[in-house]
Write a structure and sequence with these properties.
The strands form 4 sheets. The chain has a 21-stranded mixed beta sheet, with no helix packed on it. The N terminus and C terminus are likely disordered. Helix 9 links the parallel strand 21 and strand 22. The protein is α/β, with parallel strands linked by helices.
């Protein structure tokens, strides 16, 4: 066996939610025993190599270029690996690096974790990964072999991604995005309500398993409709650390007792093996939309005679393993949607669909761009995103009528020069591929209007200036370092995405992009808003989140037509004298503001205002000026607001209000005058009562009051006709059983309508005849309810 090495690194935390992460800062602990089955000789400790450019090492494979830690051969970590950034870590810090590359197997005697949802350092393992727990928020973990997890695998957010051939794990918990693996057959157990596997453990069964231990259940089954946002740091720090084995045991015991002899539920994927041979039966069972001569028809009323006239057929999201052969019968088919299935190849008969203009094969398992696709010469729109294609071959040139081509999120390493012969192409997406170099012919696509090269980690040629018709260009997550003169020659650009491109400034002649309306400069190295942007008279949308901006310059008032400004995740402490005549949306979330700027409340056109995760303690009377405000968010982890002014009731246009994580002891009465309010979040406060006036909010659809001190759910909750989501987790509720609270809102409303939520006679008896006399007598009471 090859020598094993020790990753002797101190890994820490930083990024967007800096304040949240302060509670979870941990030093990397290099402790614990080695896995005896893995070692032949004791591992050697290696000195950390100097920083290596991730692009040169990995072939442009990562979101952010920069220093990496590189280890040769099989490696061992005795302890945890923290993929978060340290709060004070920057490019000049000795600790600073962008990720870890292990050229071999990696064994971690501890947990690989990343608490931060939005970003993190990458981990690239060229062999297999062995780890106790894998907990990923926003980091990128790429394993070329398999992942073997001893206890828990958790992926909590869509910014983070886990790639592997297969994952062997007792428990997989996935919130917004599941790990990207070639096969899921080795995953033993899912804890997510979207899965229909009979071994699924939902909120109710978890409550049974852990005997109503809410500190575990709430943090483990966060996806239940009434559950809080999942905190990976809370779960790891408060529940999992040092407790994974004992936490796992009751889950597996429950599974064994309840499911070992259970007959598996017959799932749709099992039915697919017996695909109906009759085309009409098939369509009625699997189609979600059918059009005849471009008019949508009722699928249940479809007749055999009508089949030949079908122009659109949607068979998406059916777990189909192959394209049904009866399609050749649909001689007038123009639009075919087969996305979100398990199709691995395109059959020969596909080329017989001569009239097909649009085909969507996104999110399948196709590995080859076959000739039968290229023979669909009438195609104008082809979507092959999220497949396993590695090469775009020469015969792509046959699709001479193609106007839109989406090849994003594949594994393309070779892009044939013949792509330059698609002269009618207007929209091209190559995002999230491994293309080392773009063919020069691509810049000959003179009719191209939209080009997405994000996450391609490739060099952008100066020949891009030839694409004179471009109106939309996305080159985010590439290492540009500066905006080239060739980009500034794209005079028709309306939308430009330069996020995470390592640029520090904009050239003075950036104003040449006179048609620019939408610009994203987020996560770059700016420390102020570039003055040259004021010369872009048509600019309506500006994104500069996470740019270390400390103040808003006076010349911001020259942005006359700006409608949306997003400068969240910066270090702004104060804003003065800012006037935005046309601004409708302002995002100042996660800055260092201590008060709501008075100038902001003079923006009469404002419809969306996000001030969450700041240090604001009061809402001033002037808030009533924002009469057009539809969405107001001022919840957060540092807020200490306990009341709203009476002028708050003037916000009659408000539909969304977030006052979560503050210090409210009651729901302000002013809120009940907001007749258009459909979304109210006051979770994580100190509210003890839901007043009867809640019934005045007749259009309320979502009400979040989790983590408060509420004891009684009033009957008036049943009088909210549009309520779809009610969150009451971690409240000491005594008048409604937990099994009712665990159900959907309509079940709770029905329970309250029947009067079951009223104070019981027994409770009244104890309160009137036991508690009160005992108080008068100075006797100590036992807590019953």
């Amino acid at each position: 066996m090859c020598d094993s090495y020790l990753l002797n690194s101190g890994l820490h935390i930083f990024y967007r939610q800096r304040k949240i992460m302060k509670n979870y800062l941990l030093n990397l602990l290099l402790i614990s025993c080695l896995f005896s089955s893995y070692l032949v000789a004791a591992p050697k400790s290696v000195t950390l190599k100097s920083g290596i450019d991730a692009i040169s090492v990995e072939g442009k494979d990562y979101f952010i270029a920069g220093k990496v830690r590189f280890y040769e051969g099989n490696s061992i970590v005795k302890g945890d690996i923290n993929l978060d950034y340290e709060e004070k870590e920057d490019e000049n810090s000795a600790l600073y690096y962008k990720g870890i590359i292990v050229d071999g197997d990696l064994r971690v005697e501890g947990t690989v974790f990343n608490n931060e949802d939005d970003y993190g350092k990458f981990l690239d393992v060229r062999g297999d990964l062995y780890v106790d727990n894998l907990l990923i928020g926003g980091a990128q973990v790429k394993v070329q072999g398999n992942i073997y997890v001893k206890y828990f695998t958790i992926q909590t957010y869509n910014h983070g991604t886990v790639w592997a051939d297969a994952i062997y794990t007792p428990v997989l918990i996935a919130e917004e995005r599941t790990p990207e693996i070639k096969t899921e057959e080795h995953i033993n157990l899912f804890l997510h309500p979207d899965y229909t596997d009979p071994k699924n453990l939902n909120y109710s069964t978890l409550t049974t398993i852990f005997k109503n231990n809410k500190s575990i259940v709430m943090k483990l089954a966060w996806e239940d409709s009434d559950e809080p946002d999942f905190s990976l740091g809370d779960f790891r720090g408060e529940v999992l650390d040092g407790n994974a084995k004992s936490l796992l045991k009751p889950i597996l015991d429950y599974q064994k007792r309840h499911f070992s002899n259970a007959k598996p539920e017959k799932k749709k994927e099992d039915v697919i093996e017996e695909v109906p041979s009759d085309s009409l039966v098939f369509i009625k069972e699997y189609a979600s939309k059918v059009k005849i001569n471009d008019d949508e028809v009722s699928i249940s009323e479809l007749t055999k005679v009508q089949l030949k006239n079908i122009s659109l057929l949607d068979l998406s999201d059916n777990e189909l393993k192959e394209i049904p052969s009866f399609l050749v019968e649909l001689e007038n088919l123009k639009h075919l949607d087969l996305s979100k299935n398990h199709i691995k190849e395109t059959p020969e008969f596909l080329s017989n669909l001569k009239h097909l203009k649009v085909i969507n094969l996104e999110s399948n398992q196709i590995s080859n761009f076959t000739r039968n696709i290229s023979q669909l010469t009438s195609l104008t729109h082809l979507n092959l995103a999220s497949n396993e294609i590695r090469v775009l071959p020469k015969h792509i040139k046959s699709l001479q009528n193609l106007e839109t081509l989406n090849l994003g999120k594949n594994a393309i390493v070779v892009l044939s020069k013949e792509i330059g012969e698609l002269h009618k192409l207007k929209n091209l997406s190559l995002t999230l591929n491994d293309i080392d170099e773009l063919p020069s012919s691509l810049y000959h696509l003179s009719n191209l209007e939209m080009l997405d090269l994000s996450y391609c980690y490739t060099k952008i040629s100066d020949d891009i200036e030839n694409l004179t018709k471009l109106t939309e260009l996305n080159i985010s997550r590439n290492s540009l370092k500066k905006v080239s003169a060739s980009i500034l020659k794209l005079k028709n650009l309306k939308k430009l995405n330069l996020r995470e491109t390592s640029i520090k400034e904009l050239p003075e002649n950036f104003s040449k992009l006179t048609e620019l309306e939408w610009l994203d400069l987020g996560a770059n190295h700016f420390n102020t808003i570039p003055k040259v942007l004021a010369d872009l008279k048509k600019l309506k949308y500006l994104e500069m989140f996470l740019c270390r901006i400390t103040q808003i310059p006076d010349y911001i008032r020259d942005f006359k037509n700006l409608k949306e400004l997003r400068i969240d995740g910066n270090d702004i402490k104060k804003i003065q004298n800012i006037i935005f005549p046309a601004l409708t949306s302002l995002d100042l979330n996660n800055n260092d503001l201590t008060e709501i700027p008075s100038s902001v409340m003079d923006i009469k056109s404002l419809e969306e205002l996000d001030l969450g995760s700041n240090d604001i303690t009061t809402i001033p009377n002037e808030i009533g000026k924002l009469v057009n405000l539809k969405s107001f968010e001022i919840g957060g982890y540092e807020s200490k607001i306990s009341s709203v002014p009476k002028e708050f009731s003037k916000l009659k246009a408000l539909t969304k209000l977030d006052l979560s994580s503050n210090e409210f002891k009651a729901i302000p009465v002013e809120i009940f005058e907001l007749s258009k309010l459909s979304d109210l979040d006051m979770g994580y406060n100190q509210i003890s009562e839901i007043p009867k006036e809640i019934s005045q909010l007749q259009v309320l659809e979502s009400l979040s009051l989790g983590k408060n001190k509420i004891r009684i759910v009033p009957n008036e909750i049943a009088d909210l006709p549009r309520l779809e989501s009610l969150s009451l987790y971690e409240n000491p509720i005594r008048n409604v059983p937990q099994e009712v609270l665990d159900e959907d809102v309509d079940v709770l409303q029905e329970y309250l309508k029947k009067g079951f939520g009223n104070e019981s006679i027994l409770e009244k008896f104890f309160k009137d005849y036991i508690f009160i006399p005992a108080q008068r007598a100075g006797m100590k009471q036992n807590k019953i309810w």
